[in-house]
Amino acid sequence: MFCKQCGGQLAPNAIICPKCGAAVTQNNAGAAKPADSGGCLWLFIGFLLGWISLILYFVWRHEYPIRAKTVLIGWIIEMVIGLFIAVVVLVIIIVLFATGVLPPDNVLQPLVMLLPM
Question: Which residues span the domain enclosing 20?
């Protein structure tokens, strides 16, 4: 059973909600909680939606905690992969400028000058 005031789980013979302190009656105790699953689909959605996933986490974190956590994990995976790709691309560009394959622009010249030669 779950409290209709806060959604906290209730013992079968509870008189008051241990989470919010509301009196438990037949009217404020529900038999089932909304479905909450954290399957691979939510992880994939979290990965694809980017920053929207972070917003979904904050919207769902109380009502659907498992789903919210799964979406957050997808967002974190996306951010780590994106950061890794950005670092790799930056290193490749710096190496190409340092080796002379690409002629450095005036804008990137200070960055190339930082490299030890």
Answer: 1-33
The torsion region of residue 21 among left (phi > 0), alpha (psi -120 to 50) and beta comes to: left
pLDDT tens digits along 25-72: 764 444 455 567 677 777 777 778 888 888 888 988 888 888 888 888
C-alpha neighbours within 13 Å on the C-beta side of residue 93: 12
Number of domains in the chain: 2
Q: Is 57 exposed, middle or buried (0-12, 13-18, 19+ CB in 10 A)?
A: buried
Secondary structure of residue 1 in the 3-state scheme:
coil
The owner of tokens 């490299």 is: 115
Residues 107 and 74 in one domain: yes
